Inverse folding.
């Protein structure tokens, strides 16, 4: 299947799990999606679309420069802008859920700013965090957390569980 279809499936699954974790109804719930420039970020933007369509108050924080977006993630960014979803610097405290779609299994070394700053802010917020595929900052192969690393309440892993999640 195409990358666009895989991203759509991942994002829809992420939105469905978010809805389930928020007691089956997201209408009126505040969800902040932390989206990186890669495919994980694109999946997070797909989830943002679905959650918005189900009545959630969704804000998307693009954790990297918009100029770094290419291909399918850039298309997803275009769609959420056309939908009018806020893509500013959202306040994390007081949200009902944070979705971590910053960095996927392609992590190489410790997260750097601005991703590292968002990871720290998310962890310090006291809000439940749902990670897409693997928590940002966790080595997918070894399970060794970098500094900083998302402390996810739950993780929706894609395809097969990453070896690092079993460590």
């Amino acid at each position: 299947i195409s990358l666009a279809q895989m991203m759509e499936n991942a994002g829809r699954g992420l939105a469905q799990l978010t809805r389930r974790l928020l007691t089956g109804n997201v209408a009126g719930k505040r969800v902040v999606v932390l989206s990186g420039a890669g495919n994980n970020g694109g999946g997070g933007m797909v989830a943002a679309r679905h959650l918005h369509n189900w009545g959630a108050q969704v804000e998307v924080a693009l954790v990297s420069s918009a100029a770094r977006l290419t291909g399918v993630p850039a298309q997803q960014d275009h769609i959420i802008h056309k939908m009018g979803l806020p893509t500013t610097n959202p306040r994390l405290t007081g949200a009902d859920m944070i979705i971590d779609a910053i960095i996927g299994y392609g992590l190489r070394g410790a997260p750097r700013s601005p991703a590292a700053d968002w990871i720290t802010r998310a962890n310090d917020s006291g809000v439940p965090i749902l990670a897409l595929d693997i928590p940002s900052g966790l080595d997918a192969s070894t399970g060794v957390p970098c500094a900083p690393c998302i402390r996810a309440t739950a993780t929706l892993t894609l395809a097969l569980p990453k070896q690092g999640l079993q460590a």
User: Anything to note?
Assistant: The chain has a mean pLDDT of 90. Helices lie at 3-21, 39-53, 71-83, 115-124. The chain is about 35% helix and 15% strand.
